[in-house]
Amino acid sequence: MDKEMSLKNRDRLIQLGITISTFRKYRGLSQEQLAERASVSRSLISSIEAAGIAKSFSLEVFYNIADALEIEPATLLSAPTQFDNLLKQNT
């Protein structure tokens, strides 16, 4: 059961990293700019966004990233549906 949960969480962390990367690019930000706005290192942003890598990070960092992207934290968790809706609103 523990292994099953860690695989599930791994997939969630990978999806969250993809979502953060997608929103960052949508906002026209580099990893360096997002890191500066979120008060974290660029290497942390890079490892969070890295494809196929499940990088865990604190809730504080999660909130800082959401604030830096100017979106609600829940939006990051409910993507890709929320991202699709955002794109539709802005087209």
From TrEMBL:
Among InterPro entries, the record links this protein to:
Cro/C1-type_HTH, Lambda_DNA-bd_dom_sf, TransReg_Diox_bact_type
Q: Give the keywords, sorted.
A: DNA-binding, Transcription, Transcription regulation
Decide whether keyword Flavoprotein is in the record: no
**Which SMART domains does the protein's record reference?**
HTH_XRE (SM00530)
Q: At the top level of its lineage, which domain of life is listed? A: Bacteria
Name all HTH cro/C1-type domain ranges: 20-76
Q: Which GO terms describe its cellular component?
A: cytosol
One family from Pfam that matches here is HTH_31
* CDD domains with a match to the protein in the record: HTH_XRE
Gene Ontology molecular-function annotations: DNA binding; DNA-binding transcription factor activity
Instruction: Give yes or no: UniProt keyword Metal-binding.
Output: no
What Gene3D superfamilies does the record tag this protein with? lambda repressor-like DNA-binding domains (1.10.260.40)
| Secretion signal, residue range per the UniProt entry | none
Q: Can you name this protein?
A: XRE family transcriptional regulator
